[in-house]
Design goal:
29% of the residues lie in helices and 34% in strands. By secondary structure, the chain is an alpha+beta fold. Strands 2-4-5-7-6 form a 5-stranded mixed beta barrel. The model has no long low-confidence stretch (mean pLDDT 84).
């Protein structure tokens, strides 16, 4: 009887541990979409946390009242981004960025909660 209690206890602890690992892995394993991909399957991503990657469109950056407004493009589609917070030092026209946030088709602007910029090519090793 005592052995059965330990077995059940360890099984419950193992199941809880597996569940925590699985949910953490699922949350961190998220692909970034291009604006074209997002618009193509917009109903699938409605209200969900998504990452959008693309290039900051030249001349689109505006800073108004502590908020950034800019456009990300992939050459096929553009999406307007609103972000309130600190921007990375490498954020500028033509920079490759990844914006995380929730997508809603009701709004005209993607509300970003995080902005990441990819490192400039000057930091990459030279290819010969």
């Amino acid at each position: 009887m005592q052995k059965m209690k330990y077995t059940i206890g360890f099984a419950l602890i193992g199941a809880a541990f597996f569940y925590l690992i699985w949910t953490s892995f699922k949350a961190s394993f998220q692909f970034s979409l291009t604006p074209s991909e997002l618009f193509e399957k917009h109903s699938e991503y409605e209200g969900k946390l998504v990452k959008i990657s693309g290039i900051v469109k030249n001349g689109s950056i505006n800073f108004v009242g502590g908020s950034y407004f800019f456009i990300i493009t992939d050459g096929g589609a553009d999406i307007s981004i609103h972000y309130k917070g600190m921007m990375p030092n490498t954020f500028r026209d033509g920079a490759e960025v990844v914006a995380s946030g929730r997508f809603t088709t009701a709004g005209e602007t993607f509300e970003a909660t995080q902005i990441l910029t990819k490192c400039a090519s000057k930091y990459e090793t030279k290819k010969e």
